[in-house]
Amino acid sequence: MIPAENILNFEAQNEIAKSIKAVLIRRIARLVRQEGLDYEGWRYVAKKVRQLCRLKPDRKGRKLPNVLTAAEFRRFYQEVDRAANAGHGLMLRLVL
């Protein structure tokens, strides 16, 4: 079990980080308004800041597709073969 003091310390640090970010956001918004930047101007500035600071988004891991097992394929095709409408059965066979 996590001690209560660690939880309180974490919550306090989280609140400080949120307040620092809120102050930074307000400063940036004030500068954007003062300079009269439009949307495209802001996008350009944000892009250049990211480049200067060498900020890049975290890479997302690639997820493998969900593939049916051999037994699941067999069961699927058994159900397709039992279909009352032959046209539907043919379409389902062509899909997978």
3D structure, described in words:
By secondary structure, this protein is an all-alpha fold. It folds into 2 domains: 4-52; 64-96, no CATH class. Helices cover 71% and strands 0% of the residues. It has helices at residues 4-35, 39-52, 70-81, 86-95.
Characteristic terms for this protein:
single chain; 96 residues; mainly alpha; 2 domains
User: Which shape, going by the Cα principal axes?
Assistant: elongated
Integer tally of domains: 2
Helix-strand pattern, N to C? HHHH
Beta-strand proportion: under 5%
Mean pLDDT over all positions: 82
Number of helices: 4
Residue share in helix: over 70%
The largest β sheet comes out as:
none
For the secondary structure, the number of strands is 0
Structural class determined from secondary elements: mainly alpha
Radius of gyration, whole Å: 28 Å
Tell me the distance between the termini. 49 Å
In brief, what are we looking at here?
The protein is mainly alpha-helical and 96 residues long. The protein has helices at residues 4-35, 39-52, 70-81, 86-95.
